[in-house]
Specification:
Elements lengths: L5 E4 L1 H5 L9 H14 L3 E5 L5 H17 L4 E7 L2 H11 L5 E8 L2 H8 L3 H19 L4 E7 L8 H13 L4 E6 L6 H14 L5 E6 L6 H10 L4 E4 L13 H10 L11 H12 L16 E2 L2 H9 L23 E2 L7 H10 L6 H18 L4 H12 L6 E9 L4 E8 L2 E8 L3 H11 L5 E9 L11 E9 L2 E9 L2 H16 L2
Parallel strand pairs: 1-2, 1-8, 2-3, 3-4, 4-5, 5-6, 6-7, 7-8, 9-10
Antiparallel strand pairs: 11-12, 12-13, 14-15, 15-16
Helix pairs in contact: 2-3, 2-11, 3-4, 4-6, 6-7, 8-9, 9-10, 12-13, 13-14, 16-17
This protein binds 3-methyl-2-oxobutanoic acid and zinc ion (ZN).
Protein backbone atom coordinates (compact mmCIF):
# COMPACT_ATOMS: atom_id res chain seq x y z
CA UNK A 1 0.00 0.00 0.00
CA UNK A 2 1.29 3.50 -0.84
CA UNK A 3 1.93 5.49 2.33
CA UNK A 4 2.04 9.10 1.23
CA UNK A 5 3.83 11.51 3.57
CA UNK A 6 1.48 13.88 5.38
CA UNK A 7 3.15 17.30 5.24
CA UNK A 8 2.23 19.21 8.36
CA UNK A 9 3.50 22.76 8.23
CA UNK A 10 4.59 24.44 11.44
CA UNK A 11 5.77 27.76 10.01
CA UNK A 12 2.80 29.70 11.40
CA UNK A 13 3.47 28.36 14.90
CA UNK A 14 7.01 27.08 15.58
CA UNK A 15 8.71 29.37 13.06
CA UNK A 16 6.48 32.32 13.87
CA UNK A 17 7.28 32.13 17.58
CA UNK A 18 10.95 32.61 16.71
CA UNK A 19 10.54 35.59 14.38
CA UNK A 20 11.85 39.00 15.37
CA UNK A 21 8.44 40.36 14.39
CA UNK A 22 5.83 37.60 14.70
CA UNK A 23 3.13 37.75 12.04
CA UNK A 24 -0.26 39.35 12.64
CA UNK A 25 -3.61 38.09 11.36
CA UNK A 26 -3.27 39.54 7.87
CA UNK A 27 0.31 38.36 7.44
CA UNK A 28 -0.56 34.85 8.59
CA UNK A 29 -3.37 34.75 6.07
CA UNK A 30 -0.96 35.51 3.23
CA UNK A 31 1.41 32.71 4.32
CA UNK A 32 -1.52 30.33 4.82
CA UNK A 33 -2.76 30.88 1.27
CA UNK A 34 0.71 30.10 -0.03
CA UNK A 35 0.72 26.89 2.01
CA UNK A 36 -2.53 25.86 0.37
CA UNK A 37 -0.94 26.57 -3.02
CA UNK A 38 2.00 24.42 -2.04
CA UNK A 39 -0.39 21.64 -1.18
CA UNK A 40 0.45 20.71 2.42
CA UNK A 41 -1.95 18.41 4.26
CA UNK A 42 -1.90 20.06 7.68
CA UNK A 43 -1.15 23.50 9.09
CA UNK A 44 -0.44 24.32 12.71
CA UNK A 45 -1.86 27.82 12.62
CA UNK A 46 -0.66 29.05 16.00
CA UNK A 47 -0.60 28.89 19.78
CA UNK A 48 -3.88 30.62 20.71
CA UNK A 49 -3.10 31.05 24.41
CA UNK A 50 0.07 32.99 23.53
CA UNK A 51 -1.72 36.23 22.69
CA UNK A 52 -5.06 37.61 21.63
CA UNK A 53 -3.51 38.38 18.23
CA UNK A 54 -2.53 34.74 17.78
CA UNK A 55 -5.97 33.55 18.91
CA UNK A 56 -7.67 35.79 16.34
CA UNK A 57 -5.22 34.69 13.64
CA UNK A 58 -6.03 31.03 14.31
CA UNK A 59 -9.76 31.72 14.37
CA UNK A 60 -9.47 33.61 11.09
CA UNK A 61 -7.59 30.79 9.34
CA UNK A 62 -10.03 28.16 10.61
CA UNK A 63 -12.89 30.25 9.19
CA UNK A 64 -11.01 30.74 5.94
CA UNK A 65 -10.44 26.98 5.61
CA UNK A 66 -14.20 26.48 6.11
CA UNK A 67 -15.02 29.17 3.57
CA UNK A 68 -12.68 27.59 1.02
CA UNK A 69 -14.01 24.10 1.79
CA UNK A 70 -10.40 23.09 2.44
CA UNK A 71 -9.51 19.56 3.39
CA UNK A 72 -6.41 20.66 5.26
CA UNK A 73 -6.08 19.82 8.97
CA UNK A 74 -6.06 23.06 10.96
CA UNK A 75 -4.28 22.59 14.24
CA UNK A 76 -3.67 24.76 17.29
CA UNK A 77 -1.04 24.13 19.94
CA UNK A 78 -1.84 23.81 23.65
CA UNK A 79 0.12 22.98 26.78
CA UNK A 80 -1.36 20.08 28.74
CA UNK A 81 -3.65 22.47 30.60
CA UNK A 82 -7.41 22.82 30.33
CA UNK A 83 -7.24 26.61 29.77
CA UNK A 84 -4.82 26.21 26.84
CA UNK A 85 -6.79 23.32 25.39
CA UNK A 86 -10.11 25.13 25.60
CA UNK A 87 -8.57 28.21 23.97
CA UNK A 88 -7.04 26.12 21.19
CA UNK A 89 -10.37 24.46 20.49
CA UNK A 90 -12.24 27.76 20.48
CA UNK A 91 -9.76 29.07 17.93
CA UNK A 92 -9.97 26.24 15.40
CA UNK A 93 -13.33 24.55 15.93
CA UNK A 94 -14.88 26.15 12.80
CA UNK A 95 -12.34 24.50 10.50
CA UNK A 96 -13.59 21.52 8.48
CA UNK A 97 -10.80 19.40 10.02
CA UNK A 98 -9.79 20.89 13.39
CA UNK A 99 -7.05 19.51 15.58
CA UNK A 100 -5.80 20.21 19.09
CA UNK A 101 -2.10 19.56 19.52
CA UNK A 102 -1.23 18.96 23.18
CA UNK A 103 2.35 18.79 24.39
CA UNK A 104 4.15 18.01 27.61
CA UNK A 105 7.83 17.30 28.18
CA UNK A 106 8.77 13.76 29.19
CA UNK A 107 12.57 13.75 29.08
CA UNK A 108 14.42 13.22 32.37
CA UNK A 109 16.09 16.63 32.18
CA UNK A 110 12.85 18.52 31.53
CA UNK A 111 10.78 16.68 34.12
CA UNK A 112 13.38 17.18 36.84
CA UNK A 113 14.63 20.70 36.11
CA UNK A 114 11.97 22.48 34.08
CA UNK A 115 8.62 20.98 35.10
CA UNK A 116 10.02 19.87 38.49
CA UNK A 117 7.50 17.05 38.55
CA UNK A 118 7.65 13.30 39.17
CA UNK A 119 7.30 11.15 36.03
CA UNK A 120 4.05 9.58 37.26
CA UNK A 121 2.50 13.04 37.68
CA UNK A 122 3.64 14.07 34.21
CA UNK A 123 2.06 10.96 32.69
CA UNK A 124 -1.18 11.58 34.56
CA UNK A 125 -1.33 15.19 33.40
CA UNK A 126 -0.69 14.20 29.78
CA UNK A 127 -3.36 11.48 29.79
CA UNK A 128 -5.94 13.78 31.40
CA UNK A 129 -5.13 16.62 29.02
CA UNK A 130 -5.54 14.42 25.97
CA UNK A 131 -8.81 13.00 27.32
CA UNK A 132 -10.08 16.55 27.79
CA UNK A 133 -9.00 17.56 24.27
CA UNK A 134 -10.69 14.49 22.86
CA UNK A 135 -13.92 15.40 24.69
CA UNK A 136 -13.88 18.75 22.89
CA UNK A 137 -13.04 17.60 19.36
CA UNK A 138 -15.53 14.72 19.41
CA UNK A 139 -15.87 13.08 16.02
CA UNK A 140 -15.28 16.33 14.11
CA UNK A 141 -11.63 16.81 14.97
CA UNK A 142 -8.67 14.91 16.32
CA UNK A 143 -5.93 15.15 18.94
CA UNK A 144 -2.19 15.12 18.49
CA UNK A 145 0.16 14.61 21.42
CA UNK A 146 3.87 15.48 21.63
CA UNK A 147 6.22 14.35 24.40
CA UNK A 148 8.45 17.41 24.14
CA UNK A 149 12.19 16.55 24.10
CA UNK A 150 11.44 13.01 22.93
CA UNK A 151 14.94 12.94 21.41
CA UNK A 152 16.38 13.25 24.93
CA UNK A 153 14.40 10.27 26.20
CA UNK A 154 17.12 7.73 25.40
CA UNK A 155 17.42 6.86 29.10
CA UNK A 156 13.70 6.79 29.98
CA UNK A 157 12.41 5.43 26.67
CA UNK A 158 10.29 2.70 28.32
CA UNK A 159 8.53 5.25 30.49
CA UNK A 160 7.73 7.40 27.44
CA UNK A 161 6.52 4.45 25.38
CA UNK A 162 4.19 3.26 28.14
CA UNK A 163 2.90 6.83 28.55
CA UNK A 164 2.23 7.10 24.81
CA UNK A 165 0.19 3.89 24.91
CA UNK A 166 -2.00 5.40 27.64
CA UNK A 167 -2.23 8.69 25.76
CA UNK A 168 -3.45 6.84 22.68
CA UNK A 169 -6.08 5.11 24.80
CA UNK A 170 -7.13 8.56 26.06
CA UNK A 171 -7.87 9.64 22.49
CA UNK A 172 -4.76 10.88 20.69
CA UNK A 173 -4.60 9.62 17.11
CA UNK A 174 -1.36 11.34 16.10
CA UNK A 175 1.76 10.87 18.17
CA UNK A 176 4.40 13.44 17.36
CA UNK A 177 7.97 12.73 18.44
CA UNK A 178 9.90 16.00 18.79
CA UNK A 179 13.66 16.16 18.63
CA UNK A 180 13.26 19.47 20.42
CA UNK A 181 17.02 20.00 20.59
CA UNK A 182 19.18 18.06 18.16
CA UNK A 183 22.06 16.64 20.18
CA UNK A 184 22.93 13.15 18.90
CA UNK A 185 23.19 11.02 15.76
CA UNK A 186 20.11 10.98 13.55
CA UNK A 187 20.02 7.18 13.78
CA UNK A 188 19.58 7.24 17.56
CA UNK A 189 16.44 9.32 17.06
CA UNK A 190 15.28 7.29 14.06
CA UNK A 191 15.64 4.02 16.03
CA UNK A 192 13.44 5.46 18.78
CA UNK A 193 10.87 6.53 16.19
CA UNK A 194 10.88 3.02 14.74
CA UNK A 195 10.33 1.47 18.18
CA UNK A 196 7.33 3.73 18.87
CA UNK A 197 5.88 3.06 15.40
CA UNK A 198 6.22 -0.69 15.96
CA UNK A 199 4.70 -0.57 19.44
CA UNK A 200 1.61 1.60 18.85
CA UNK A 201 -1.55 0.45 17.05
CA UNK A 202 -1.31 0.70 13.27
CA UNK A 203 -4.12 3.25 12.99
CA UNK A 204 -2.06 5.79 14.95
CA UNK A 205 -0.17 8.32 12.84
CA UNK A 206 3.45 8.65 13.82
CA UNK A 207 4.77 12.14 13.33
CA UNK A 208 8.31 13.54 13.45
CA UNK A 209 9.33 17.05 14.41
CA UNK A 210 13.04 17.77 14.28
CA UNK A 211 14.98 20.84 15.15
CA UNK A 212 18.15 21.54 13.25
CA UNK A 213 20.68 22.41 15.96
CA UNK A 214 23.38 20.22 14.40
CA UNK A 215 22.19 20.56 10.82
CA UNK A 216 20.80 17.02 10.53
CA UNK A 217 17.05 17.62 10.87
CA UNK A 218 16.35 16.77 7.25
CA UNK A 219 18.32 13.52 7.49
CA UNK A 220 16.49 12.51 10.67
CA UNK A 221 13.09 13.35 9.18
CA UNK A 222 13.66 11.60 5.86
CA UNK A 223 14.98 8.45 7.56
CA UNK A 224 12.08 8.51 10.00
CA UNK A 225 9.67 8.21 7.09
CA UNK A 226 11.33 4.92 6.19
CA UNK A 227 11.17 3.90 9.87
CA UNK A 228 7.38 4.27 9.95
CA UNK A 229 6.62 7.97 10.44
CA UNK A 230 3.99 9.40 8.11
CA UNK A 231 3.50 12.95 9.34
CA UNK A 232 6.42 15.23 8.58
CA UNK A 233 6.39 18.36 10.71
CA UNK A 234 8.42 20.88 8.76
CA UNK A 235 8.73 24.60 8.22
CA UNK A 236 9.14 26.72 5.11
CA UNK A 237 12.81 27.55 4.52
CA UNK A 238 13.60 25.60 7.70
CA UNK A 239 12.58 28.56 9.86
CA UNK A 240 12.09 28.06 13.58
CA UNK A 241 13.63 28.34 17.01
CA UNK A 242 17.46 28.70 17.04
CA UNK A 243 18.80 26.95 13.90
CA UNK A 244 15.27 26.22 12.88
CA UNK A 245 12.95 23.32 12.19
CA UNK A 246 13.27 20.75 9.44
CA UNK A 247 13.20 22.35 6.01
CA UNK A 248 10.03 21.20 4.26
CA UNK A 249 11.52 21.54 0.78
CA UNK A 250 14.55 19.38 1.47
CA UNK A 251 12.38 16.61 2.90
CA UNK A 252 9.90 16.72 0.02
CA UNK A 253 12.59 16.65 -2.66
CA UNK A 254 14.61 13.91 -0.93
CA UNK A 255 11.52 11.72 -0.62
CA UNK A 256 10.56 12.48 -4.21
CA UNK A 257 14.05 11.46 -5.35
CA UNK A 258 13.54 8.17 -3.49
CA UNK A 259 10.37 7.53 -5.47
CA UNK A 260 7.94 8.31 -2.65
CA UNK A 261 4.58 9.51 -3.93
CA UNK A 262 3.22 12.68 -2.37
CA UNK A 263 0.55 15.29 -2.85
CA UNK A 264 2.76 18.36 -2.58
CA UNK A 265 2.99 20.75 -5.56
CA UNK A 266 6.75 20.64 -5.83
CA UNK A 267 6.71 23.23 -8.61
CA UNK A 268 5.62 25.86 -6.06
CA UNK A 269 8.67 25.38 -3.85
CA UNK A 270 11.00 28.01 -5.23
CA UNK A 271 8.44 30.78 -5.33
CA UNK A 272 7.29 29.87 -1.82
CA UNK A 273 10.86 30.00 -0.57
CA UNK A 274 11.49 33.47 -1.99
CA UNK A 275 8.21 34.80 -0.63
CA UNK A 276 8.78 33.25 2.80
CA UNK A 277 12.18 34.86 3.07
CA UNK A 278 10.60 38.22 2.27
CA UNK A 279 7.66 37.80 4.64
CA UNK A 280 9.79 36.50 7.51
CA UNK A 281 12.57 38.95 6.81
CA UNK A 282 15.08 36.11 7.07
CA UNK A 283 17.44 35.90 4.07
CA UNK A 284 18.05 32.57 2.41
CA UNK A 285 21.73 31.89 2.93
CA UNK A 286 23.65 31.61 -0.30
CA UNK A 287 24.60 27.95 0.12
CA UNK A 288 21.15 26.77 1.26
CA UNK A 289 20.30 23.48 -0.43
CA UNK A 290 17.87 23.77 -3.35
CA UNK A 291 16.86 27.38 -2.76
CA UNK A 292 20.12 29.25 -2.12
CA UNK A 293 21.45 31.43 -4.90
CA UNK A 294 24.61 29.32 -4.96
CA UNK A 295 22.82 25.96 -5.06
CA UNK A 296 22.99 25.91 -8.86
CA UNK A 297 26.46 27.48 -9.31
CA UNK A 298 29.44 25.62 -10.75
CA UNK A 299 32.87 27.23 -10.76
CA UNK A 300 35.48 24.51 -11.03
CA UNK A 301 36.48 23.33 -14.48
CA UNK A 302 35.73 19.64 -13.77
CA UNK A 303 32.27 20.37 -12.40
CA UNK A 304 31.54 22.73 -15.27
CA UNK A 305 32.52 20.07 -17.77
CA UNK A 306 30.24 17.48 -16.10
CA UNK A 307 27.42 19.97 -15.75
CA UNK A 308 27.65 20.97 -19.40
CA UNK A 309 27.73 17.37 -20.64
CA UNK A 310 24.64 16.46 -18.63
CA UNK A 311 22.71 19.70 -18.91
CA UNK A 312 19.90 18.12 -20.91
CA UNK A 313 19.44 15.19 -18.54
CA UNK A 314 17.00 15.13 -15.62
CA UNK A 315 19.79 13.93 -13.36
CA UNK A 316 22.85 16.14 -13.76
CA UNK A 317 26.42 15.13 -12.97
CA UNK A 318 26.59 17.79 -10.28
CA UNK A 319 23.00 18.59 -9.35
CA UNK A 320 20.45 16.60 -7.33
CA UNK A 321 17.43 17.42 -9.47
CA UNK A 322 16.29 19.15 -12.59
CA UNK A 323 15.51 22.44 -10.90
CA UNK A 324 12.36 22.97 -12.94
CA UNK A 325 10.93 20.37 -10.52
CA UNK A 326 10.79 23.05 -7.84
CA UNK A 327 9.91 25.86 -10.23
CA UNK A 328 13.43 27.27 -10.42
CA UNK A 329 14.48 28.66 -13.78
CA UNK A 330 18.22 28.11 -13.61
CA UNK A 331 19.61 24.61 -13.61
CA UNK A 332 23.38 24.73 -13.95
CA UNK A 333 24.82 28.20 -13.67
CA UNK A 334 28.42 28.34 -14.83
CA UNK A 335 30.45 31.32 -13.79
CA UNK A 336 34.10 32.02 -14.38
CA UNK A 337 36.91 32.20 -11.85
CA UNK A 338 40.58 31.25 -11.90
CA UNK A 339 39.38 27.70 -11.15
CA UNK A 340 37.20 27.51 -14.26
CA UNK A 341 37.75 25.84 -17.58
CA UNK A 342 36.99 26.27 -21.27
CA UNK A 343 33.47 24.84 -20.83
CA UNK A 344 32.46 27.85 -18.78
CA UNK A 345 33.76 30.19 -21.48
CA UNK A 346 31.94 28.17 -24.13
CA UNK A 347 28.65 28.11 -22.19
CA UNK A 348 28.76 31.76 -21.12
CA UNK A 349 29.49 33.06 -24.62
CA UNK A 350 26.91 30.84 -26.27
CA UNK A 351 24.37 31.76 -23.62
CA UNK A 352 24.99 35.41 -24.39
CA UNK A 353 24.40 34.94 -28.08
CA UNK A 354 27.95 34.30 -29.38
CA UNK A 355 28.10 30.83 -30.89
CA UNK A 356 31.78 30.07 -30.32
CA UNK A 357 33.14 26.54 -30.49
CA UNK A 358 35.11 24.76 -27.78
CA UNK A 359 38.45 25.44 -29.48
CA UNK A 360 37.82 29.16 -29.47
CA UNK A 361 36.69 28.94 -25.85
CA UNK A 362 39.89 27.07 -25.01
CA UNK A 363 41.94 29.87 -26.58
CA UNK A 364 40.22 32.50 -24.49
CA UNK A 365 40.24 30.56 -21.21
CA UNK A 366 43.89 31.25 -20.21
CA UNK A 367 43.43 34.96 -20.91
CA UNK A 368 40.35 35.07 -18.69
CA UNK A 369 42.03 32.92 -16.04
CA UNK A 370 44.88 35.40 -15.75
CA UNK A 371 42.47 38.31 -15.44
CA UNK A 372 40.43 36.40 -12.90
CA UNK A 373 43.48 35.77 -10.74
CA UNK A 374 43.47 39.54 -10.11
CA UNK A 375 39.79 40.37 -10.38
CA UNK A 376 38.09 37.28 -8.86
CA UNK A 377 34.90 35.99 -10.44
CA UNK A 378 34.31 37.57 -13.85
CA UNK A 379 30.80 38.69 -14.68
CA UNK A 380 29.31 37.75 -18.03
CA UNK A 381 29.74 41.31 -19.23
CA UNK A 382 33.45 41.28 -18.28
CA UNK A 383 33.90 38.02 -20.19
CA UNK A 384 32.11 39.50 -23.19
CA UNK A 385 34.29 42.57 -23.00
CA UNK A 386 37.45 40.47 -23.11
CA UNK A 387 35.98 38.26 -25.82
CA UNK A 388 35.13 41.25 -27.98
CA UNK A 389 38.53 42.79 -27.47
CA UNK A 390 40.18 39.57 -28.49
CA UNK A 391 37.92 38.19 -31.17
CA UNK A 392 35.51 40.84 -32.24
CA UNK A 393 36.80 44.10 -33.66
CA UNK A 394 40.24 42.67 -33.04
CA UNK A 395 43.25 44.93 -33.12
CA UNK A 396 46.23 43.20 -34.67
CA UNK A 397 48.32 43.75 -37.76
CA UNK A 398 45.47 45.47 -39.49
CA UNK A 399 43.30 47.99 -37.70
CA UNK A 400 40.14 48.77 -39.55
CA UNK A 401 38.83 52.32 -39.23
CA UNK A 402 36.19 53.17 -41.84
CA UNK A 403 34.68 52.06 -45.11
CA UNK A 404 33.01 54.53 -47.49
CA UNK A 405 30.68 53.28 -50.16
CA UNK A 406 30.84 55.41 -53.32
CA UNK A 407 27.25 55.48 -54.63
CA UNK A 408 26.66 54.10 -58.16
CA UNK A 409 30.31 53.13 -58.70
CA UNK A 410 30.63 49.75 -56.90
CA UNK A 411 33.63 51.26 -55.21
CA UNK A 412 34.65 51.08 -51.58
CA UNK A 413 37.21 53.23 -49.84
CA UNK A 414 38.90 51.69 -46.82
CA UNK A 415 40.85 53.57 -44.16
CA UNK A 416 42.98 51.34 -41.94
CA UNK A 417 46.35 50.93 -40.25
CA UNK A 418 48.62 48.07 -41.24
CA UNK A 419 51.69 47.36 -39.14
CA UNK A 420 51.35 50.80 -37.61
CA UNK A 421 51.13 52.70 -40.93
CA UNK A 422 47.97 54.52 -42.01
CA UNK A 423 46.49 53.46 -45.36
CA UNK A 424 43.65 54.43 -47.62
CA UNK A 425 42.68 52.02 -50.42
CA UNK A 426 39.93 52.15 -53.00
CA UNK A 427 38.61 48.77 -54.19
CA UNK A 428 36.02 47.99 -56.89
CA UNK A 429 33.77 45.03 -56.15
CA UNK A 430 30.17 43.82 -56.20
CA UNK A 431 29.77 44.23 -52.46
CA UNK A 432 31.67 45.28 -49.33
CA UNK A 433 32.67 41.78 -48.22
CA UNK A 434 34.08 40.97 -51.64
CA UNK A 435 35.89 44.33 -51.51
CA UNK A 436 37.39 43.48 -48.13
CA UNK A 437 38.58 40.08 -49.42
CA UNK A 438 40.18 41.74 -52.46
CA UNK A 439 41.84 44.23 -50.14
CA UNK A 440 43.24 41.38 -48.05
CA UNK A 441 44.95 40.04 -51.19
CA UNK A 442 46.27 43.47 -52.05
CA UNK A 443 47.72 43.75 -48.53
CA UNK A 444 49.53 40.43 -48.98
CA UNK A 445 47.25 38.73 -46.42
CA UNK A 446 44.95 36.67 -48.67
CA UNK A 447 41.98 34.87 -47.16
CA UNK A 448 39.17 32.65 -48.53
CA UNK A 449 35.58 33.12 -47.44
CA UNK A 450 33.91 29.88 -46.31
CA UNK A 451 30.64 31.06 -44.83
CA UNK A 452 28.94 34.12 -43.60
CA UNK A 453 26.14 34.56 -41.09
CA UNK A 454 24.43 37.60 -39.74
CA UNK A 455 22.21 37.76 -36.66
CA UNK A 456 21.20 40.08 -33.90
CA UNK A 457 22.87 39.94 -30.48
CA UNK A 458 20.42 38.36 -28.06
CA UNK A 459 18.86 40.12 -25.10
CA UNK A 460 21.03 38.06 -22.79
CA UNK A 461 23.91 40.42 -23.57
CA UNK A 462 22.55 43.48 -21.82
CA UNK A 463 25.17 45.83 -23.25
CA UNK A 464 25.04 44.81 -26.92
CA UNK A 465 21.48 43.48 -27.28
CA UNK A 466 19.89 44.28 -30.63
CA UNK A 467 23.13 45.06 -32.41
CA UNK A 468 24.19 43.30 -35.61
CA UNK A 469 26.50 40.31 -35.13
CA UNK A 470 28.46 39.15 -38.20
CA UNK A 471 30.26 35.84 -38.19
CA UNK A 472 32.54 35.03 -41.06
CA UNK A 473 34.50 31.85 -41.49
CA UNK A 474 37.81 32.51 -43.29
CA UNK A 475 40.69 30.27 -44.29
CA UNK A 476 44.31 30.80 -45.20
CA UNK A 477 47.23 28.39 -45.41
CA UNK A 478 45.09 25.45 -44.33
CA UNK A 479 43.85 27.18 -41.19
CA UNK A 480 40.23 28.17 -40.62
CA UNK A 481 39.05 30.78 -38.16
CA UNK A 482 35.85 32.54 -37.26
CA UNK A 483 35.90 36.33 -37.44
CA UNK A 484 33.24 38.19 -35.53
CA UNK A 485 32.07 41.76 -35.57
CA UNK A 486 29.46 43.61 -33.58
CA UNK A 487 28.07 47.03 -34.38
CA UNK A 488 24.80 48.90 -34.59
CA UNK A 489 25.74 49.34 -38.28
CA UNK A 490 25.55 46.09 -40.27
CA UNK A 491 28.27 47.15 -42.72
CA UNK A 492 30.67 47.97 -39.89
CA UNK A 493 29.85 44.64 -38.17
CA UNK A 494 30.75 42.87 -41.44
CA UNK A 495 34.02 44.70 -41.78
CA UNK A 496 34.98 44.08 -38.19
CA UNK A 497 34.31 40.39 -38.73
CA UNK A 498 36.50 40.24 -41.86
CA UNK A 499 39.36 42.23 -40.34
CA UNK A 500 39.07 40.28 -37.08
CA UNK A 501 39.41 37.05 -39.07
CA UNK A 502 42.39 38.35 -41.05
CA UNK A 503 44.15 39.28 -37.83
CA UNK A 504 43.47 35.87 -36.33
CA UNK A 505 44.98 34.18 -39.38
CA UNK A 506 48.00 36.46 -39.67
CA UNK A 507 48.66 37.33 -36.06
O1 LIG B 1 10.07 21.36 19.40
C1 LIG B 1 9.10 20.97 20.08
O2 LIG B 1 9.26 20.14 20.96
C2 LIG B 1 7.82 21.55 19.80
C3 LIG B 1 6.65 20.95 20.47
C4 LIG B 1 5.74 21.95 21.02
C5 LIG B 1 5.95 20.03 19.52
O3 LIG B 1 7.70 22.45 19.00
ZN1 LIG C 1 9.47 22.61 17.73
Amino acid sequence: MVRKPFFYDITLRDANQALVNPWNKEQKEVVFKQLLKLGVQGVEVGFPIASEMDFESCENLAALAAQLGSNVVISALARAKTTDIQKAWDAVKEAPKPRIHVFLAMSPLSMEHVLQMEPAAVRKQAVEAVAFAKSLVGEKGDVEFSPEHFGDSVENFDFVLESLKQIVEAGATTINLPNTVERYRPMIYVDMVRKVADALPKNITISVHCHNDLGMATAATVESYFAGATQMECALNGLGERSGNTNMFEVAVALHNCGVEMDMNLGEIYETAILTSKWANVPIYAKAPLIGIEAVAHRSGIHQDGASKTKNLKKGAYRPIDYSLIGRQENDVLSFTSQSGKTAVYEILNHNGYPVDLDEAAELQPVLKEISEHEGELSDSRILEVFKEKYCNLNGRVIFHTIDVIPGENRFVFKFHKDGVAHEESISAEGPIEAALLLSRKMGLPVELNSYRQSVVSNADKLWAGRALSEISLSANGKTVMGRGVSSDTLVANMRAVFGGINKLYR
